[in-house]
Amino acid sequence: MIIVNPSTLSYNVLIEHEPDGRFNAVVLGLSDCKSSGKTENEALENLQQLLQKRLQNSKIVTLEINSPETDNPWMKVAGMYKDNSLFDEVLADIQAERGKLDAEIEEFYRQIDTEDEVK
Fold it and tell me: What DSSP line would sit under 27-91, residue for residue?
């Protein structure tokens, strides 16, 4: 088992047990970083050494880019009814209809429970 301390990098590794009994280990996202071994631990240790050699003359940086501005189609309609005097009335109608539907569903489940109790 490889122990990770807070100052190390973490990688997700796919370990595959081959039909010949060997183990292959591949770093997810870095398909060219792979190793094999007679055991799972040997494959992981080999992979760890490979990564350490690779990182000796390398560094990992975070690259930030600005995403391009795009028109969000929802922004064209967002808030379009905020000053409409009928908006509150429409919301009340929606809530009333939702209440009716909820009551119907509740009654449906009550009937199912009653039928189950009879059986």
Answer: ETTEEEEEEEESSHHHHHHHHHHHHHHHHHT--------PPPP---GGGGTTTTTTT-TTHHHHH
Say how many Å lie between the first and final Cα of the chain, rounded: 56
Distance CA 19, CA 31 (A): 21
Alpha carbon distance 92, 95 (integer Å): 5
Cα–Cα distance for residue pair 46/106, rounded to 1 Å: 61
Three-class secondary structure assignment of 2-33 = CCCCCCCCCCCEEEEECCCCCEEEEECCEEEE
Q: Give the tens place of pLDDT for each residue, 41-79.
A: 999 999 999 998 988 888 888 889 888 888 888 888 888
- Residue in this structure with the two tokens 């990098």, named with its chain if needed: 9
pTM above 0.70, yes or no: no
